[in-house]
Design goal:
The protein is built from 16 helices and no strands. It is mainly α. It has 2 domains: 62 residues, lambda repressor-like DNA-binding domains (434 Repressor (Amino-terminal Domain), Orthogonal Bundle); 195 residues, Orthogonal Bundle (Hypothetical protein af1432). Helix 13 runs antiparallel to helix 15. It is elongated and about 70 Å long. It starts with a helix and ends with a helix.
């Protein structure tokens, strides 16, 4: 496939409304220029290439290089198997809050779909279950940690109040702190205030780092290029401070090292690709 053909394909993937004329208007060039690019008569200059990639929500690399032909597959694992695994671990390690929260999370999230650009059918419960499995795999067998990981999106995704959660005050407070719907989303500083509040709560910091590693891992299947750039910048800006809080808890030292490694590796990969 030629560069012109890749430009055409990316434009048409954005929908019928993005005609050559509309794309030209967005880029501030003539429709004839767009047409000449798609016919491979000329290549866009560097400035227009960058603007073109942004307008089409693709990477520069995908416009300039031949498609590698890789077959896309689902990012997430089987939620039923993870549910069974977490339940089994909770029984072995005597984690009563985790057992209760498993049922609540499944009830709240139900069959709600997990965001996917590629159309793979995944239910939302795969996200908190992956976080719980991640924590257990790192040796975190603390009932508060696993219950909070399972509960972290419940207040955002349902009509439940924090006080309704079948958990102790430590778990409830961590869930309250990470629930964005409990903050005002107006003004330029709301996001800064949100992360500053999380920094005050070590359990919330740990849950949020587990959450971010899982979301970064599936980011390419959930966001367009602009969304991935924004998410990468946000992670780079706010999460080092959260990781520092996690590091200060002695029993989380191994988890801190692994989370920092995983987050850094994902971030640096996306920086180079985006």
């Amino acid at each position: 496939m030629t560069t012109g053909e890749r430009i055409t394909k990316a434009r048409k993937n954005k929908g019928k409304e993005l005609t050559q004329e509309k794309l030209a208007e967005i880029l501030g060039v003539s429709p004839q220029a767009v047409s000449s690019w798609e016919r491979d008569e000329y290549l866009p200059d560097t400035k227009n290439l960058i603007a073109l990639a942004d307008a089409l929500d693709v990477t520069l690399d995908s416009l300039l290089r031949e498609d590698n032909g890789w077959k896309m597959g689902p990012v997430n694992c089987d939620p039923d198997r993870m549910f069974t695994f977490v339940k089994g671990r909770a029984q072995v390690y005597c984690l009563p809050q985790t057992l209760r929260m498993l049922d609540v999370a499944r009830s709240v999230h139900g069959k709600k779909p997990r965001r996917s650009k590629t159309g793979f059918d995944t239910v939302y419960t795969v996200h908190p279950l992956t976080m719980a499995c991640h924590a257990l795999a790192m040796g975190l067998h603390d009932d508060d940690v696993i219950a909070a990981a399972l509960a972290h999106d419940i207040v955002e995704e349902s009509d439940m109040q924090v006080s309704d959660l079948p958990a102790n005050e430590r778990v409830r407070e961590a869930v309250r702190v990470v629930s964005k719907n409990l903050y005002g989303h107006s003004g330029p500083d709301w996001e800064k205030a949100y992360f500053e509040e999380i920094e005050k709560n070590p359990l919330a910091c740990l849950v949020k780092c587990l959450d971010r590693v899982n979301n970064l891992s599936g980011m390419a299947d959930a966001f367009d290029r602009a969304g991935m750039v924004k998410y990468t910048k946000e992670t780079d800006q706010y999460y080092p401070a959260l990781l520092k809080v996690v590091k200060k808890v002695p029993e989380w030292s191994n988890a801190w090292w692994l989370l920092r490694y995983q987050m850094t590796a994902l971030l640096e990969t996306f920086k180079r690709m985006l």
